[in-house]
Structure prediction request, 155 residues.
Amino acid sequence: MSAEEAAKLAFLADGSYAAARRLLSENESAALYLRLFQQWMRACLKFDAVKVIEVIDSISPLKREKHKEFLKYALGIIRECVVMNYGDSSLVRLQGEELDFVKKFCRFIHAGNCERFIDELNKASASIERNAAPKMLFMDLSFRANELLNVPVPA
Prediction:
C-alpha cells in the first residue's frame, strides 16, 4: 500500500489497530460506494429518472448487508458535509476523491435538510433490515433525496 493510503487509514482508525484492519478490508467497498453515491446524488439533484434508475439497478443486486453498508456510507458522507459546513474542517476524516466530492457536495447539505436526510437514510436502513424491496426503497429514497437536495439554505 502507498504511504498516502497508509496515512489515510491511520487517520481514520484513530490509532486502533483493529479499526485499521477493518478499514483496510473495507477500502475497496468504499471506492465502489463513493462512485455509486456520487452518481446517485447527481441524478437525484435534477432528478434525471434514467440515471436514477441506472444507479438503482447497480445498487439493487447487492446483498442486504451491502445495502446497509452503502446507506451507512451515505450517512458518513452527510456527517462529513455537516462538519465541513458547521464545524472545524480539520475534523473531516476524508482524503483524496472523497474529500474532493464532499467539498463540492457540502453546499447541498445544510441546517435546513441535514436532519431529515439522516432520518430518511436511517429509515431506509431499518426497512432494508425488514427485507424491503431494494428497487422500491431506493426509488422512494431518490424522490426524497431530490426534495431534500433542493431545499433552500436557511437564512
In short: The helical segments are 3-13, 17-46, 49-59, 64-86, 96-105, 114-129, 134-149. Residues 120 and 141 are 7 Å apart (CA to CA). The mean pLDDT is 90. The first helix runs from residue 3 to 13.
